[in-house]
Structures are given as structure tokens and as C-alpha cells.
């Protein structure tokens, strides 16, 4: 590959960008100093020869992939420890390096230590007493033990009250006896459970004095700390009394049970991971859209005008319509995720002082935001893949693997439909409160004002779109509430009525979440614009407008159903969409440059900063062992005899 050459199209794109991409980078990182720290941190890991790929892992066996992953995870861990010793890394960096964008670039096939940092340690922090934290956290932090989070069983993932593993307290020995007696009670899915972890937080039904007290977390040793041999299986495994995490519900030594202030505090780790997923989904989407945007600026194909040369495919408006909403969606999820993270931290400190009031609202928002961000990021990444034509299908483009990672988010940490129904539960209560004149929490305040007016004359502004989306959400919430209550009045019991109305409940929940995202995104941009250059402010505003217009236009049916919008208004919206695509076009490459994703994290010949797509693609395929010899052995073994026999 020619060294140090920059693709001419990308050079031109960079010259025409109206703002300085560095300004966007600093904004996203939280300042120039933070950008420098991040870049140094990335360099520290990515420049390590032991961590860089010698060959793409696609050509390794399953076993080899696992072994490479463990080796790299250990190197990464030691390097994080070095940073820690220099005061340059904390828990957040562990998560970033071991689970986030940087981690997934180093450990392309998954991180055997991921659950240790993302769930095992956070569960001990959130569910353990001070003494338990003191005992376990430092061991876990220093990797003297390796943990995972074992909740899901072969028979149950969603319905955790149905878990079958039991933990029965034996006051005579002051131990819990854990049992997974059936095939369906096998712990199934926990990351690292197979070969890596030697401890787990096991979620089990607690029995004491003959009474079941529901699910609780227990620390269980899985493997010998020296030999790593598995401990005897899950039949009557005894663990000491203080291995039950007892910050919330407790069993006293005599076996009496002390209830938690809320049984849902046991579900705290799930809220934490859902909150983290929103940011993570956004980051994967920005990686995919960086690849597809740079590729679309370099790739020339077909004609717009017969008389002109083949254009960059980014000049096709349909291509812009595929990619620019993904750029905007990244920002929408980024700002909503940041908002949710703040709320999570505030509510968590309130919980520490015994205030539980805001937990239901946090749960409702975390559920729908996790569901919508995972689904939209997955769909957006798939759109980016398709936007790269055949080359997007290639594994080396990194788009299929990125899609694979994000589509898993739709299922884990609460399957999306199930989570949207949790939010719907909250919305049904909110609507009832609204009807009864009861106070509403901030995220559903809009129900009051929308209930008073279903009107609103079109004007070309994001606030009009927010009001329209709130109208749609309120309309859907009202419809689902009314239909469910009609059924109940006709004698259907409330559980069946819920199930029969669940399509509308899920739709109401999604609409509520989309309205929340647009509003949060808009408010964030409004706050940012005065503090950045006029050019960047304009670019950020255009993206926000695009997200709002495009989201509304994807819901034309709902808009017609729940508002007094006219067909003329819809035409105005379509024109606005097209104007925004044209306005964003010159800045598209600048925006993805502003994301400042290191080429080693991009890991795609289609999306490198220099735009040498074809040279890099060629170099990539030449790494395949299949291309090492001109004739593969299988020709002599199988094809040749077959060809001969036909003669
Ligand atoms: C940079 C780092 C990147 C990190 C990226 C992450 C990578 C990690 C990779 C993989 C991790 C994957 C790990 C897992 O998947 S672990 C397993 C996760 N499992 C789940 O999420 C299970 C989903 N199921 C549930 O959450 C629940 O069972 C349920 C669906 C909510 C139903 O529970 P239950 O039947 O008990 O509850 P009800 O429906 O009856 O509701 C009762 C009331 O409780 C409220 N509720 C429910 N959950 C919570 C909660 N978490 N917090 C607060 N309140 C909660 C619910 O709203 C009801 O309230 P009400 O007032 O209406 O009665
Ligand atoms: C990659 C990956 C990693 C994971 N890591 C872990 C881990 O580390 N630790 C761990 O404990 N678990 C882990 N899990 C398990 C994960 O949390 C569960 O798979 C998830 O919670 C979904 O549960 P399920 O598989 O039982 O799906 P199911 O609940 O069986 O879902 C199947 C279908 O039934 C529907 N459904 C179920 N209940 C309802 C309902 N009440 N109303 C309407 N529809 C419903 C769903 O919408 C879905 O369409 C992981 C899973 C994956 C895929």
C-alpha cells in the first residue's frame, strides 16, 4: 500500500467542511485535555505489539479465539493496572478498556473478563454490605478472583421470579445450601462462566425457615483458585452465611429474614447495565457510520448526469438518507445516554439514603431507552452495512461483527419487548394519575398539557416536532389505556386484558421514548450551541433537526391519527428533510472525523482515515490462509477425482 497517501476525495471533503472537526472532538470528550488523555490511553493499548492482531481472528478456530482473547485480556488488565498506579485510570477506564469501544477493538471476539467488570464488581458494590464490599472488591479489582453474573437459566431468562436455583439457609451450620436440581435450572449464558471465572454472583430463590423469600444474590466459588478445576456441580453446594449479598434483604444467623426496603433493589445491577448499554450502543453506531460515510465519499459509481463523471455515492440523496439520520441518531443516543447516566447517579445516591421515590421513573426510562437505543443502533448499523454494497458484507469491513455485537443488546439485559412493557406499566399508571388529577413525574408531565390540547398549527421548528411526538405518545398511551379498560369492563380479567392490549402498549412505550429522546437531544443542543463556534453550532443544530424531522416522518400514520396535521404540512416536512440532507452533505466527512475514532478501532479497510479503500481491501484479503497457495489440497483430494470420473 502506498505510504502516507491520502485519498483525493477525502482531501476535498475535509477542505469543504464548514467547521473544525477538532472542535467537535473536544466537545464530545469534554475538553482538549480529555481528548489528549483519551488518545494517549488508546495509543498505550493499541501500539502494544502484543495486542495488535498478527492475522484476523476470522481464520482462527473457536478454541484459538478463546485462548487469544484470554491472553489479550490479561495483557490489557496489566496495562490498566500500570495506568492505575500512575493515577491515570479508574473504574470507568476499566469498563472502557475491557468492555467499550476500545476494548472491543482489542478483543474483537469478546472479552472473557468483561462480565467481571461490568456486572460482578458492580453487583458487589450495589448489593453487598460495607463488610462484604471490603472483603470482595479489592480481591476482584486486583484480579485475585475472576467473577461473573449468573442469573439466567436454561429455562428462564426474562421471568426471573421463575428461576429454579435455590439457596436454603441451614442455621445449624450457618451456611446456605445451593441447588440447581433440574436441567432447566442450569445457569446458562453468563459470560466467562465456561472457562474463565472462578467465582460468580449466583441469583437464587432464598429459602429460610421453610419460607421462600424470592430471588437474592449469592457469591459462589466455581473453580479452585490454584488448579482452576471446577468445584463439584450445583447439587447441595454449601457456602458460608456471609456469602449472601445482604445490603438489602438479609438472613440473620438464626434464620429470620429481614426484608429489603424494596424487593426491586435486588434488580439494581440490571438497571446499571441498561444505562451503560445506551452509551455503548451509540458508540458502536458512530463507528459504523464513520466507516460507511468515509467509504461513500471514496466510492464512485453510476451516474447522476450522463454527461458528468461517476459521482461519489455520497452524492446520491438516497445514500444521504441512509447515512445522515444515523449520524444524527448517534448524537440523539449520546445525549439521552448522558442524561440517563446523570439520573442514574442521582437516584443511586438517593437510594443510599433510603429515598426510593424516583426508582420507578428511573426503571421506566432505563428500560425504554435501553430497548430503543439497542434496536435503533442495530438497525442503523445494518443500514450502514447495506449502504456499503458488497464490500459491507465482507467480514473485514467490521460491519457484520459490529451488527452482531449490537443486535445481542436487543436480547440481553432484558429482552426489548419485555422492557418496553415494563415502561408501559409505568405509563398506564401515569395516564390514570393524569385522569385522576394526581401529580405526574417530570418525564410524563407532557401528558397533562397534551390532554388539554390535541391541536397545534405547523411551524418549521423542533419544538413543534417535540409537541407532535408527545401528542402521538399521549394518543397511544390513551388508546392502550382505554382499550385495556374496555376489555376489563367487558369482564376480561386484568392480566388477560394486559396481554390482549400488549401490541398497543409496546407502541405507546416506544412513542414515549422517542419523544423523550428528541426533547433531550434538542435541550442538550440548545445548551451547547452558545458555547461553540457558530459553524459547529449550525452543524449540530442541523443534525438535531434532521433527527426530529426524520423520526416524525417515519411515523406519518401516527401523526395523521393523533394530530391535526395536514397533507400540506407533511409536504413541508419532506422538503425540510431534503434541505437538511443537502445542508449536512458538505460536513458529513468532517462530522465523522470529529468522532476521532482511531483507525485501529475502526478496523475496517472501508473506513480508515486515509480513505485508501481498495489498497486496504486487497491487503486484507491477502491475509487469508486460503490465498497462501495457488492450489488448495482439496482440489487433489476431492475435485480432481470427481472431474476425472465424469470424463
Ligand atoms: C463500556 C461497557 C459496556 C457494557 C456493555 C454491556 C456488556 C455486557 C454483556 C452482556 C451482559 C448481559 C448480562 C445479562 O443479560 S444478565 C441477565 C439480565 N436479565 C434480565 O435483564 C432479566 C429481565 N427481566 C427482568 O428484569 C424482570 O424479571 C422483569 C421483566 C422486570 C419482571 O420482573 P418481575 O416479574 O419481578 O416484576 P413485575 O413485572 O411483576 O414488576 C414488579 C414491579 O417491579 C418493578 N420493577 C421491575 N424491575 C425493576 C427494576 N430493575 N428496578 C426497579 N423496579 C423494577 C416493576 O416496574 C413493577 O413495579 P409496579 O410498581 O408496577 O408493581
Ligand atoms: C450475548 C448474551 C449474553 C448474555 N449474558 C448473560 C450473563 O452474563 N448473565 C446472565 O445471567 N444472562 C445473560 N444472558 C441472558 C439474557 O439476559 C437473556 O437471554 C435475556 O434476558 C432474555 O431472556 P430469554 O432468553 O429467557 O428470552 P425469552 O424471555 O424466552 O424471550 C423469548 C421471546 O418471548 C417473549 N416474551 C417473554 N416474556 C414475555 C412477556 N412477559 N411478555 C411478552 N413477551 C414475552 C420475548 O419478547 C421474546 O420474543 C445473555 C444473553 C445473550 C444473548
UniProtKB/TrEMBL annotation:
All copies of domain Acyl-coenzyme A oxidase N-terminal, residue ranges: 20-146
Keywords, alphabetical: FAD, Fatty acid metabolism, Flavoprotein, Lipid metabolism, Oxidoreductase, Peroxisome
Active site: 413
Gene3D superfamilies: Acyl-CoA dehydrogenase/oxidase, N-terminal domain, Butyryl-CoA Dehydrogenase, subunit A, domain 2, Butyryl-CoA Dehydrogenase, subunit A, domain 3
Database matches in InterPro entries: ACOX_C_alpha1 (IPR055060), Acyl-CoA_ox_N (IPR029320), Acyl-CoA_Oxase/DH_mid-dom_sf (IPR046373), Acyl-CoA_oxidase (IPR012258), Acyl-CoA_oxidase_C (IPR002655), AcylCo_DH-like_C (IPR036250), AcylCoA_DH/ox_N_sf (IPR037069), AcylCoA_DH/oxidase_NM_dom_sf (IPR009100)
Single GO molecular function: acyl-CoA oxidase activity
Chain ranges of the Acyl-CoA oxidase C-terminal domain: 465-644
Protein name from the UniProt record: Acyl-coenzyme A oxidase
One example of a Gene Ontology biological process annotation: lipid homeostasis
Domain Acyl-CoA oxidase C-alpha1: 267-428
Amino acids binding FAD: 152, 191
GO cellular component, one term: peroxisome
Amino acid at each position: 500500500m502506498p505510504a502516507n497517501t491520502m485519498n483525493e476525495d477525502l482531501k476535498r471533503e475535509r477542505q469543504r467542511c464548514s467547521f473544525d472537526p477538532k472542535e467537535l472532538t473536544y466537545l464530545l470528550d469534554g475538553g482538549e485535555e480529555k481528548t489528549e488523555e483519551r488518545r494517549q490511553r488508546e495509543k498505550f493499548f493499541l501500539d502494544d505489539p502484543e495486542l495488535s492482531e498478527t492475522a484476523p481472528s476470522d481464520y482462527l478456530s473457536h478454541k484459538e479465539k478463546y485462548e487469544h482473547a484470554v491472553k489479550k485480556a490479561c495483557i490489557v488488565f496489566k496495562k490498566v493496572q500500570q495506568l492505575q498506579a500512575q493515577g491515570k485510570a479508574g473504574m470507568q477506564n476499566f469498563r472502557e478498556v475491557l468492555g467499550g469501544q476500545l476494548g472491543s477493538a482489542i478483543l474483537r471476539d469478546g472479552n472473557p473478563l468483561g462480565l467481571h467488570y461490568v456486572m460482578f464488581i458492580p453487583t458487589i458494590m450495589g448489593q453487598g454490605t460495607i463488610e462484604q464490599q471490603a472483603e470482595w472488591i479489592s480481591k476482584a479489582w486486583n484480579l485475585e478472583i475472576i467473577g461473573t453474573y449468573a442469573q439466567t437459566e436454561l429455562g428462564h431468562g426474562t421471568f426471573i421470579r421463575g428461576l429454579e436455583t435455590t439457596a436454603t439457609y441451614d442455621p445449624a451450620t450457618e451456611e446456605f445450601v445451593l441447588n440447581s436440581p433440574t436441567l432447566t435450572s442450569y445457569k446458562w449464558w453468563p459470560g466467562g462462566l465456561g472457562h474463565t471465572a472462578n467465582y460468580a454472583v449466583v441469583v437464587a430463590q432464598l429459602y429460610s425457615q421453610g419460607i421462600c423469600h424470592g430471588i437474592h444474590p449469592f457469591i459462589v466459588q466455581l473453580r479452585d483458585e490454584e488448579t482452576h478445576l471446577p468445584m463439584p456441580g450445583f447439587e447441595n453446594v454449601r457456602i458460608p452465611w456471609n456469602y449472601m449479598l445482604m445490603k438489602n434483604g438479609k438472613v440473620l444467623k438464626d434464620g429470620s429474614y429481614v426484608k429489603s426496603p424494596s424487593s426491586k433493589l435486588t434488580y439494581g445491577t440490571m438497571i446499571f447495565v441498561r444505562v451503560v448499554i445506551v452509551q455503548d450502543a451509540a458508540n458502536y453506531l458512530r463507528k459504523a457510520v464513520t466507516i460507511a460515510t468515509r467509504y461513500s465519499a471514496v466510492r464512485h459509481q453510476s451516474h447522476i448526469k450522463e454527461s458528468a463523471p461517476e459521482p461519489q455515492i455520497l452524492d446520491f440523496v438516497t445514500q444521504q438518507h441512509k447515512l445522515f439520520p444515523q449520524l444524527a441518531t448517534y448524537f440523539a443516543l449520546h445525549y439521552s445516554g448522558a442524561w440517563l447516566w446523570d439520573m442514574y447517579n442521582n437516584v443511586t445516591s438517593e437510594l443510599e439514603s433510603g429515598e426510593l421515590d424516583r426508582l420507578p421513573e428511573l426503571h421506566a426510562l432505563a428500560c425504554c431507552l435501553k430497548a430503543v437505543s439497542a434496536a435503533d443502533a442495530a438497525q442503523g448499523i445494518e443500514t450502514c452495512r447495506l449502504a456499503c454494497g458488497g464490500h459491507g458484507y465482507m467480514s473485514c469491513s467490521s460491519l457484520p461483527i459490529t451488527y452482531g455485537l449490537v443486535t445481542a443488546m436487543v436480547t440481553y439485559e432484558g429482552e426489548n419487548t419485555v422492557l418496553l412493557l415494563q415502561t408501559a406499566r409505568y405509563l398506564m399508571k401515569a395516564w390514570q394519575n393524569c385522569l385522576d388529577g394526581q401529580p405526574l413525574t417530570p418525564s410524563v408531565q407532557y401528558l397533562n398539557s397534551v390532554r388539554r390540547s390535541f391541536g397545534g398549527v405547523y411551524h418549521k421548528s423542533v419544538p413543534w416536532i417535540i409537541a407532535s411526538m408527545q401528542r402521538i405518545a399521549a394518543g397511544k398511551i390513551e388508546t392502550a389505556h382505554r382499550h385495556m379498560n374496555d376489555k376489563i369492563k367487558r369482564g376480561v380479567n386484568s392480566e388477560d386484558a394486559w396481554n390482549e392490549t400488549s401490541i398497543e402498549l409496546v407502541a405507546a412505550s416506544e412513542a414515549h421514548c422517542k419523544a423523550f429522546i428528541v426533547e433531550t437531544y434538542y435541550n442538550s443542543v440548545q445548551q451547547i450551541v452558545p458555547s461553540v463556534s457558530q459553524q459547529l453550532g449550525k452543524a449540530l443544530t442541523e443534525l438535531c433537526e434532521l433527527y426530529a424531522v426524520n423520526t416524525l416522518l417515519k411515523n406519518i400514520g401516527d401523526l395523521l391519527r393523533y394530530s391535526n396535521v395536514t397533507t400540506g404540512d407533511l409536504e413541508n416536512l419532506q422538503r425540510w428533510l431534503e434541505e437538511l440532507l443537502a445542508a449536512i452533505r458538505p460536513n458529513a466527512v468532517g462530522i465523522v472525523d470529529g468522532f476521532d475514532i482511531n483507525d485501529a478501532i475502526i478496523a475496517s479497510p472501508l473506513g480508515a482515515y486515509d480513505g485508501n479503500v481498495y489498497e486496504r481491501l486487497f491487503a486484507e484479503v491477502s491475509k487469508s490462509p486460503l490465498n497462501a497457495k495457488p492450489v488448495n489440497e482439496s482440489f487433489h483430494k476431492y475435485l480432481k477425482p470427481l472431474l476425472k470420473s465424469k470424463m
